[in-house]
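Quick entry between incubations.
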Amino acid sequence: MPHRANVMICTCTNCISNGSLQIKEALEKEISKHKLEDDIQVVPTGASGLCVKGPILVVQPDGIFYQKLKTKDIPHLVEEHLLKGRPVESLMYVSPGEKTPIPELREIPFFKDQRLIALRNRGMIDPDKIEEYIARDGYKALAKVLTSMAPEAVIEEIKTSGLRGRGGAGFSTGRKWESRRKMQDDMKYIICNADEGDPGAFMDRSIIEADPHSVLEGMAIGAYAIGASYGYVYVRIEYPLAIERMELAVEQAREYGLLGKNIFDTGFDFDVEIFKGAGAFVCGETTALVASIESKPPEPRQRPPRTALWGKPTVINNVETWANVPAIINWGAKWFAEIGTEKSKGTKVFSLAGNVNNAGLVEVPMGITLKEIVYDIGGGIPHGKKLKAVQTGGPSGGFIPERLLDLPVDYERLQEAGAIMGSGGMVVVDEDTCMVDVAKYFIEFGVDESCGKCTACREGSDVMLQILTRICAGEGQEGDIELLEELGQAVIDASLCGLGQSLPNPVLSAIRHFRDEYEAHIRDKHCPAGVCKPLFQFKIDEEKCTGCGLCRKHCGHGAIQGESKSPHTIIADKCTKCGACYDVCTFNAVTKVANSVMEAAVSH
Amino acid sequence: MIKENNSQRIGVYICHCGTNISHTVDIKKLVEYARTLPDVAVVREYKYMCSEPGQDLIKKDIEEDKLTRVVVSSCSPLMHEETFRNACEDAGLNRFLFQMSNIREQCSWVHSDREKATAKAKRLITAAVRRVKYQTPMEQREAPVHPDTLVVGGGIAGIEAALKIADSGKKVYLVEKEPSIGGHMAQFDKTFPTLDCAACILTPKMVQVGQHPNIELMTYSEVEEVSGYVGNFKAKIRRKARYVDESKCTGCGECMRGCLVRNVAYLEPDEEPEIVMEPDEAATMQGIMEKYREAKGAIVPALQDTQMAFNYLPENALRYISREMEVPLGKVYRLATFYNAFSLTPQGKHVIRICMGTACYVKGGNRILEAFEDQLGIGAGDITRDQQFSLETVNCLGCCGQSPVIAVDEKIYGYFKQTDVRELIKEYS
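Done. Structure below.
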């Protein structure tokens, strides 16, 4: 008997960390208390997307969306909504700056403007149950290709769709497959690259956690197309839940005969193994990834020869690319090619994060503008701050300043602006972010993650870091900016792999769009955003300070003194500029004062 | 010692070079300026200083005005230094008391801003005037040059240098401190970036060195002292003791095997140390090996399981993996130290990981890290003395929706604030 309602509770890593498993337990308890077990089913799902509002729950079929749940809300919710049919307004989503709650998921701006292909099953199925995937046309595409399509026809279909690699480089998936199809060999391999190393990106994790079978099905279709019989899913070890769900998915697919020998009685064999990456960013590079699977030191090498696992023809695609494949087969290349721009087809999943109200996972048609993503879907910047830039492509990408926000999302257009599509990390930074400091952050990442093979990348990044550190410390010199530009170009020119060739990008694009901030650091020893510690001091505004003592309590260094109910002061010698007082003050009485201003004040 | 020879009479001559210099540099201003420089006795400008009348100006002033130093500001010394030195000499001034400043190639030709170019020319002239005071009269002499060459170090660079010089007909001494030339390249498998076989490049060259009539190879020798001067160096080379007659030795190695005092050219490798493990430790490792011994390229997964079992990679476990999987210990270590997920030292009871993803960073992740470092009194990558906590950074936990994020063991804490640090540490203590 079908259930009257399904309660879809998000159990992605985010929501679990916010206690969604306890909420699931409480739900089940309350439901059985009201004897509703036969009417209402609780379904644990993968990420619904709006991570910032977790834990999240959706009551289907009405699509009523509840957010930021606590265990204590559950009895009330079950009684009111599930028993009496009166949705609980106080737990619903409210747009920033609005008052009226929006009950239905599909009406919420965050979801309304998205178009789901790779994430088509998110929040709709229990990722641990293959039956639910199958019920939503799962493995239908695999059946279709195995029983009615020649491998060449599959490749043609993917080529026509215009699908390009979602890992970042944007190479045509169909052409990649075609070249491997043409190679004659007794063994070929399929690899799914889920070594999502970009900081600030979680698309791959979310897709696997929400819908692992779509990835497996895509891989099986790819295997059939190129003539491979074995595959690897390379997942980073920092994603334990994704690994667990993928392992279970592989097991279930084997049980159902969707992996293994003689799939659908067509004589096609394909099996998959999960390989856990051990935490090296460079392993996202295909030659390094393959070396890593072979247990060789994962250092990239020159291409050609082409990337080949155990010396055999190998296709490596990103998680999102694989998840798109079944949809293209099911609904047709023509349908897919109609979405997007001239050269970038379909949709792209982005992990929207940073200083944005609705941080989370979004899938949007190519060609949408950044403004729409940040403001319409993302709900704008919190605390009324001003947007400064959007960072795309992680450590290989760049910054897009506020004035270019009308830029459509498209592989070529982003590149022209000095950024890249990348795998889909999209970090919004507001006016409180220092563009020198954040460039330093990316270079520090590069220094850590450079494998050390190429001198230009290993040493060049280190020298760039030294220069940036110097600038942040207020010791920048005339000519530092030009030196950074020259050095960055040298690293790009003289490095072997994508990591080195793109490592200076964040610095170069930050300089390109925010040169004035660099000049302010160097010439005026001033950090406009108030981030670089040596360049400012904390001060308490005596007029605003009520003497509540909160800052004094939170100061770990005894650097704040003052009597209760009278203005406090900061002892500069003891202050480590940790910023705790700044964060806790509810009256905005703690302010950052630039050193240059302080000096001027002293000399008065 | 170099010292400033004060109270000189310096003549400064500024050349228009047709319009080559004068179209960007204001000559008039230069002249005025040069007059103000200390010790300058005469300043003149002329259309072409290098012309006969131009040179005569200098000669005349040396004779009549008793100039002791001469500065010409014109073109590159490569063009006319000799010309002006000769002019000075003709007039009886030592040719090395002349200085040239280049205001054409290094100034007028490469700039377009007249004002800035003039300012730069002023500085160039000032420098030349200051410098010329330090110059002392010198005489030119000829000394024979010994054409033999000494190349120190028989690596690939030394070999190549020796061959090139020897091929051009010069005698070369190639000194190498090791018993054989070849250096580091002899230890490489492939060369960057073309991945060519290192030995295939190196060995033919080593043979060429050995056979070249112009090269005297001195292996197992070291340079002790170098004396002399340019063109006539003397080098003292110590040829280390051989104790064998090299002309008769075939390198059969028999003497090394028979040597009673084992005073041989290389050491026998150490005995493989025994792998000592606690019984349960040994059982764990055996279990891991059962799983991976036969699988191809399974070192990384084996290391992951080991890390999981012990919370770090004990040395004995690495030795065990090396022995059981028949992989050199060096390779096992190379992998163990490459990846962030592996640790060679034990971790604390609780591992605190601070996410350093971009989203967390822009929301103050590094301030949280500093707060933890402050509270625990350790830096990232360290372990507290009571072994309760390890503090680590992680590139991204993939929970950017709740940034800033930290994790203690497997539990993730979102929207973390630095003011929560103290409370959290108390909770886990």
